Amino acid sequence: MSEPPVNVSADGVHPEPRKSGHRLLDFAIALSAIVISLISLTVAIHHGRVQERLVAANSWPFLFWSSSIDQDERGQQFSIYIANSGVGPALLKGLIVRHAQKPVRGWVELLQECCGVERQTELDPPSLGFFTGGQPKGVIAAGETRTLISLTRLPQNPQLWERLMAARLQLGFEACYCSIVGECWKSDLRGLEPTRVRECKAGPDDYIEFGAGIDERGVLPMLKKEE
């Protein structure tokens, strides 16, 4: 068995690749090796991108808003909620809810704007038929819903329930949410194609649990009447 060719220089002894003795053949072999390496690199890059898309697809959230009417022992409940029908969790970072083009920052303000609830010092939610509602921003898991407001129809005040039902036709939403892999979208929570954005941020008009003017004592001060 012959020894591999070597190159002896002042820096030491270095092995050299075997050569066929034909310059054109040696060039073709070297070129083939380079082409194969480039193809392997291209395949690896493509495979990585496919894997990224698969991860993104398997963590894709999709938020929409809707309303429902349910019946239980308390009576009829009308609810407005946000749901995630995607396959991954959504991090809802920004949410503006508008009634007749005006931002409302919680269910108290919504009932004031749409349904004739007076702007007084304090409010007893059960007296309005308020059943549940909460802070919508945060993580919404796939298949989960987040209720903005659920109102029970009370015999002594059915008009409030009916006004809220009618008000849903004047509601508009502007949401910004992200997936767990950092992809973010803006959406009106109606369309099927949300707009991709670089990031999501909270804003001063964002919907919170009650609305503006809530203090730490649990008192629900209403907004002052406009002069």
Tell me what the structure shows.
The chain has 227 residues and is an alpha+beta fold. It has two domains: 18-58; 63-197, no CATH class. Helix content is 26%, strand content 31%. It is built from four helices and twelve strands; from the N terminus they run E-E-H-E-E-E-E-H-H-E-E-E-H-E-E-E. It has helices spanning 23-58, 107-115, 125-128, 158-167, and strands spanning 6-9, 12-15, 63-72, 75-84, 90-99, 102-104, 130-132, 138-140, 145-152, 171-178, 184-187, 195-197. Strands 5, 6, 8, 10, 11 and 12 form a six-stranded antiparallel β-sheet that branches. Strands 3-4-9-7 form a four-stranded antiparallel β-sheet. Strand 11 (184-187) and strand 12 form a beta hairpin. The longest helix is centred in the first third of the chain and has 36 residues, at 23-58. The radius of gyration is 31 Å and the shape is rod-shaped. The model is unreliable at 215-227 (pLDDT under 50).
